[in-house]
Specification:
The chain has 3 domains: about 250 residues, Rossmann fold; about 150 residues, 3-Layer(aba) Sandwich (Rossmann fold); about 150 residues, Rossmann fold, CATH 3.40.50.920. About 40% of the residues lie in helices and about 15% in strands. The protein is built from 25 helices and 19 strands.
Amino acid sequence: MHELLSKLESAIDLQDMSGKQLDQLAGEIREVLCNLMSDRTAHFASNLGVVELCLAMHSVFDFRRDRLIWDTGHQIYPHKLVTGRYHEFKTIRTKGGLMGYPNPHESEYDLFMTGHAGSSVSTMLGLRSGDDLLDEGERRAVAVIGDGAFPSGIVHEALNNAGGLKKNLLVILNDNKMSICPRVGGMASYLDRLRTNSFYTGLKAEVVKALNKVPVFGDPTERFLAQLKEGLKAGLCGGMLFEELGVRYLGPIDGHNISVLRKYLKMMKSQEGPILLHVVTEKGHGFEPAAEDPVFFHTPPAFNRSGEKAVPKSKGSSKAYTNYASKAIRDQMLKDRRVTVMTAAMCQGNKLEVIRDEFPDRFFDTGICESHAVAFAAGQAKAGLRPIVDIYSTFLQRSFDQIFQEVTLQNLPVTFMLDRAGLTGPDGPTHHGVFDLAYMRIFPNMVVMAPGDAFDMPAMLEFALQHDGPASMRYPKTNAKRIETSENDGDRSPVELGRAEVIRWETDGAILCCGTLLGECVRAAEQLSEQGLNVAVVNARFVKPLDAEMIARLIGECGFLVTVEEAQLMGGFGGAVLEAVNQLNLDASQIRCLGIPDRFTEHGDRTELLADLGLDAVGIARACGELAGIEDTSGIIEAAEGEAVG
């Protein structure tokens, strides 16, 4: 079926292919991408959009020696297919299989794990500088960055530095008018003007025709055309932002025409200094449903292809925590006109489309500019508003300094909602949101919360918005659960500052859970009870301030204590509990902390990863059995496993 692709041993083979063969190869790659989607969710539309660009680059450069960084790495699939990983491709985003992002452990063609947007120009400039210092200057340096990532502050810091250093660096701006959702901001408008200027577009076409008639390297006619083009371009577009920074701008050119791409890339190999090549592509190109709705097809659910139609496979009706968060935000915005919400190019991921449409004056998408989003929120809070910053846990890390300086130091009432907290499954280590408990709880004035289930979500948000200071709450990328309690006649306790909630009370031991693994803890306790070991389950709710009174009660009345968190143990919830036990001068010998160890967790199904880490009901039950002194825990484990299957 894949005549050319299946025979590729290395990307270097592309350099001997004709234009017709490369076009055929592009079709085969799209076929593989569509087939993948029948099996699992994956990044789709963005990969369809870069097929020709990928083939053109690999047919011109030898990236075994030359340098290539994709920013962001979710558009890496065609690159993986042509760099010797075709036969493993069916394993992508599965446990033990290929990573869905660049991975230096997989191939010499992958230099960095690039899961966050905007860093490519900086890292590539560093590589270029390093190669020059080590007399490796013949290497070519290429960074591919999307227009959604381009407004990131670090990109402009890097371009400013590149213009000053005058290093040989090619930045390819992949302009498809999209981030995950349609991009926003002044830079987007600027790129639109560059792309749609009718006179310049015509001039570009004439240059392409001329280039087809002249040699690629060094021809005086070519140089004259390039100078003419750039002179007219500068006159049409005013000061030319990039040129003023010392970065030569070329384009825009058609990103789906392999012949044109190759000609320009070959020209770039002989040019000196930093260059920005503006390439226009279509997200979802080659598969009509994805091209028509690139937002939905960014990471669509698995579907069957019927001709040029995508038929989604059936899926459960359970709502994710993200849906509960979105509804809670909307309810608060209806109640209080001071409440605003902002996100960093993740309107779709955070399920904020309804809020964007219903409250356009109180919804703010800053683009992939997390640091700005947090500082922006601080300004709104100072003015008297109650802003909600709704950003993935792993991406909020980029605004660490603004959380410190602009929010917590000023003690401003900004509410942080950290989506995708914990393990994000097939997205892997670049996206696992496992560090937020450690980096949020260290700040004075910050209240840190973790809902145990769907019940806690709206109550915690209401508490946060009424609290006169900064607060954060985290929740995972998984379907929401609602936990029943055997205490308080089955009624759930209200959310109160620094107060934990007893779900069930027993005295053989206790499980103190931070976050939405509460359901696993309850299941473990139920199975332990059937084996004669009766343990309490407590929903911590607050990481900061901790419920010290509850911790003292658990230590004093229960035989042992197991803490559970879907986060890094180092600096996390378990560590906070041990700190509190030490301050209370209590015995910590019968405490065990379950969480994520001091290593990066690979990609895989979230259920598989939790089991490997001992964070499912089986692992929690095992830990309790061991602390209780049960030498043979096989009966407990088998019971818990049976419950898990059921």
